[in-house]
UniProtKB/TrEMBL annotation, chains A, B:
This is NADH peroxidase. Its EC number is 1.11.1.1. The gene is npr. Residues 476-563 form the Rhodanese domain. Keywords: FAD, Flavoprotein, Oxidoreductase, Peroxidase, Redox-active center. It holds the Pfam family Pyr_redox_2. GO terms for molecular function: NADH peroxidase activity.
Amino acid sequence: MGKGMKVVVIGAVAAGPKVASKIIRQMPDAEVTCVEKGRFLSYAGCGLPYYVSGVVEDQAELMSTPVGVVRDPVFFRNVKNVHVLEQTEAVSIDRSGKKVYAKDIRTGNEISLDYDKLVLATGASPFIPPIEGTKLKNVFTLHGVDDAEGIKAMLAEHKARDAVIIGGGLIGVEITESLVHTGCRVTMVEMMPQILTMLDWEMAKLVEQHMEAKGVKVLTSTKVEKVDGKSGVVEAVRTSNGKICTDMVIMAVGVRPNTKLAKDAGLELGVGGTIKVNQKMQTTDPDIYAAGDCVEMENLITKDKCYVPLGSTANKQGRVAANNISGRKDSFPGILGSAVCKVFDFCVARTGLSEEQAANAGFDVETVLSPSPDKAHFMPEAKMLMLKLVADKKSGRLLGLQAIGPGAGDKRVDAAAAAISAGMTMEQISNLDLCYAPPFSPAMDNLITAANVMRNKLEGDMEGISPRELKDKMDSGEDLFLLDVRSEGEFNEVRIPGAVNIPLGMLRKRLDEVPEDKNTQIVVFCKISLRGYEAGLILENAGWKDIKVLDGGVVMWPFEKITP
Amino acid sequence: MGKGMKVVVIGAVAAGPKVASKIIRQMPDAEVTCVEKGRFLSYAGCGLPYYVSGVVEDQAELMSTPVGVVRDPVFFRNVKNVHVLEQTEAVSIDRSGKKVYAKDIRTGNEISLDYDKLVLATGASPFIPPIEGTKLKNVFTLHGVDDAEGIKAMLAEHKARDAVIIGGGLIGVEITESLVHTGCRVTMVEMMPQILTMLDWEMAKLVEQHMEAKGVKVLTSTKVEKVDGKSGVVEAVRTSNGKICTDMVIMAVGVRPNTKLAKDAGLELGVGGTIKVNQKMQTTDPDIYAAGDCVEMENLITKDKCYVPLGSTANKQGRVAANNISGRKDSFPGILGSAVCKVFDFCVARTGLSEEQAANAGFDVETVLSPSPDKAHFMPEAKMLMLKLVADKKSGRLLGLQAIGPGAGDKRVDAAAAAISAGMTMEQISNLDLCYAPPFSPAMDNLITAANVMRNKLEGDMEGISPRELKDKMDSGEDLFLLDVRSEGEFNEVRIPGAVNIPLGMLRKRLDEVPEDKNTQIVVFCKISLRGYEAGLILENAGWKDIKVLDGGVVMWPFEKITP
C-alpha cells in the first residue's frame, strides 16, 4: 500500500514527526519528507519552563526519546526512514501542481518538493502585544529552544534580578514558577480580573493567593502600556497600575496559529485564523491535511469551534491524519479543554466547561465547591484538594471539573474527562468504581463526594451560597448570621470576618445563641462545609427557614480572612 | 417525610453509619438506631495496616472525621442524631413482628427493637483456614482494631522477629509491607501459583519480584499444612515447601460475609453465602435492606454475581440503601473490581477483567503490555509505570486495566474505570482529552499509548508475543532469533537469556547479522518494546516473514534476567 506515495510534512516539532513516523510505519514504501524551519526537531516545547528552571538539566533531553536517543535528522533517517530537511522554510504551496516550494535558510537555496499528500503541522507563534518596547534586550517570549537559551543566558549573567511576566495564562504561570526557582523576584501582570481564565474566578483567586504566598506579586486587571528601556535594555514596565522596575520581561500572552502558507494557498480558515479541518484532519483541499497548534478544534460538549493548542492534542491529531493518509479510517472527535499545570505546591487542573463557559453556552448550571483530603485523611501524606464541579441542572450531566491544591487533582480531572466524554450524570459518577486504598484516595473518592454533594443540591436537600454571592451580601450590608461550626481551636487560627463560632457538637445545646427570628438569613459553614451541612440540617429542624451552606467552607474562601 | 419511621441498622463500621446518617439527614423525624457488636464505631478498617506499621500513629485517627472528631456514640447522638448501641449483638430477626432481638455483651441484658425498615450492615469476618495451630499465641488475623493492637503489642515485646503471612491477597500484601516497615523479616505463603489473583500471572510475578527485592520471601504454589507451637506459642509454619520458623503468623486468606442473621431470618442468600440484594440494596424482604461487606454484587461487564468486599463499595451502597428507605429512587449498578494497594515503592492497581477473567467470561481477548514513564520522560520525577490492557477483539472495547510500578497507576486505573463503565472502545480511549503537562503525564498519556498499541494489534499492524508464550517456546527448544535492539550499554546491564543485541539505530546497516532464512522465527524487543516495534517493521520490510514483538520488553520480562 502507498507504493511510492509522496508525503510532505511541513513542521517537525510535535504533530509533524508523529504524522511522518506513523505514515512510514503503515506504508513503508512511501517517501516521507519533513520540512522544518528551525534547528530543533521533535522537541518537547512544554518542557521549556523546566529547562529554564534547571529541573531539566540538558536541552538535549527535551528532544530525546524516553531512552535518551536524540531525535535528529540522522535518527529520523536511520530509525524512522523519514527524510528531514531542517532549517528549511516552506514558502508556498502550488495546489494544482501539488508542489511545495521551500528555501534552505542556511544557503538560500530554493527547492521544490512534489507531493501526493501534504500535511501542515506549522504550529503557532507567540503573540507579541502591540506595545512599545517589546524589542528591547531582555524582553523574551518562551516558545522555542532559542528563547529558553536566551533567558538562561540572561539569568547566568545577572545574579539579582526582577522579572515581569506579561500574561497570566498557563505558560505565564509555568515560567513564573521556573524563574522563582532560579531566585528571581517575579511580578505577574494580567489584563483580565483573574489569571488562568480556564478556571472560574474564585478558583483562580485561590491560585493567585498560593502564588503570592510564594512571593510572587500578581497584578490582575492591569494593562501593560509600555516597556521602558535604557541603552536598548529593558528597565521597567509601565502599567495601568504604575511602573514596575525590572531586569527582564517575558511576554506570555498566548500564541497565534501559523497559517500564512495555508491562507496563501487558499485553504479555508476558521476560528482565530486557524486552519479549518474535518474530523479526518483534512483541510478544504482533500490532499492537504493539517494537525497540531495550527488547526481549529471542536469542543466536545458545546460543539463550538475553538482553539486550544496543546502538545497532547497535536500528537493525537497527528496519528489520525497519518491513518487517513494511509488509507485507514480514523477521526479526531474534539477536545474538552483539559489542562493541568504545576504552580509551586499546587496542581491546577481542569476539564470541560467552567461555570462561566457553561452559562455562556446556555446551560442551566449548578456548581459545587468541594475541598477534602486527596487520600484517606488519617494518612500523613494526604493533601488538600479543592474541586469545583459544574453540572447541567436539567440532565444532571457533568459539564466540567476544576481541581486545585497540593492534592492529586490531575487524577480526578482525568477520570472526569472520561466521564464527560461519555456524557455521564452525577448519579453515574457517584457510583463509579474508582480504586481505593488509604495511600491513594479516601474511601469515597473526592470526585464521588463532590458528585454526591451535587446530587444533594440538585435534589434540593441543601441550598448553597457561593463565596462571591456571600461576599456581595456582606458588602451590601445585608442582615446575615454567619455561623462557623468549626472547633474553637480552628476558629482561633483563621476565620471569615463577621462569623460567629458554635462548634457543631455543641450546636443542639446552644441554639439560644442563634438569632431568635426564624427568618434570619443564616449562612453556615466549617472548614470544608461538611459540618456546615450538618449544622444547616440541625437549624432547619429547629425551625429556622433561611439557611444556606457556604460552598467550599473556610478553605475555599477566596477573600480576606482574619488571623486573630 | 418519614414521620416517626423506625429504622434499625445492624453494624456500625462502614456501610452502617453511612446509611444511618444519610437517613436522618433526609428524614429528621425518623428514629434511627445502630446496633454494633464491637467496641469501635465507624472505623477505617482499611487503615489498620498503616496503624500496625506506625504510619498512622494513633488508633483514634482511624475512627475520626477528617477534622479529628472521634466518631463515638456521643458524636453520633449530638451531631448525627443517631442512637448507637455499642457492644450489643443482634441475635435474631422476627420478620413478621418486625423486631430485632439483641443482647448487650457487657451486661447480658436482652433488648428488642421495633423496626419499620431494617438494614443489615453486618460486614465480614476473616476466614480461618481449617488447619491445626491457628489458635496458638501470636497467630493473628488483621480485621479489627483489636487484631491490630494484638500485633502491635507483640511487635513491641519482641525486638528481632520473623513473620509468616498466610495468603497473598490485598491484605496479605499490605500487612507484609507494614511488618517490613517495623523491621520484621517476612515470608509470604500463597497456595496459588501467584500472589494477588486480581492480577494476571505475569503482572503478579513482577510484584513478587519487587517484594523480593525488598527482602520479602514469597513462596507461591505453597500449601500451609500446620502451624506448630511450643508452650502454646507459635514456633513454625509447616508447608508443602518445608518448615518455616517464625515468631508470628498472620492469616490473610480472605473474609467471609457475616450472614447468619439473614440466613436464620430466611432471607435469600447468593454467591459465597452473601445476602442477595437488588439494585436498591433491598433483600428478598422488601423491608430489609443490606449493604457493605455482607452482600452480593454484580460485575458491570459480565453481569455475573460476585463478592468483592471493599470500603469504597460499602459507602456507595449505604447511600443507595438510605435513599431508597427515605423514599427516593436510587440504585447501585455494580462493580468493576477496581482495587489498588501500595506494595513498597509500587502502586498496584487494577479495574475490570483480567485476561484470565475475560477469557473465562467468553470474550475473544487481546492484551497489551505497555511500560513507560508516568510523566514526561525528561522530568526527573518521572517513574516507570507498567500497564496491561485487556480488550475485546470483536468490539474493540476496553475490558480491563492492570497497572503496576512506582508510577501513578491509580490515576490511569481510575480513568479506565470510567471508560469501561461507559463501554468505551480503544479508538475512543486513544482520543480522550486527558490533561497534560510534563510534571503530570507524558504528552501521550500512558493509557492512550497503551490504547494505541492495542489498536495497532487489533488492526494487525503488529504481532505481539507475551512473555509467557515466549518462555514456553524458549523452554521447548524452538529455533528462535531473539533480537534485543537496545543500546549496547543497556544490553550490558541486564538482558534476557539468549538474546542477540543490534541497537535499533544500526539495524538497517547490520541486517547481515540476522539469520538469512527469511522464515526464521524472530522475536524483537527493547526496554519497553517501542524500539522493538520499529525494528520489527524494518525486518519486515527487509523480507523476514515471522516477526513478533515481545510485549512489554525487558522491563516487563517476569522470568530470570542475566546481569553480565
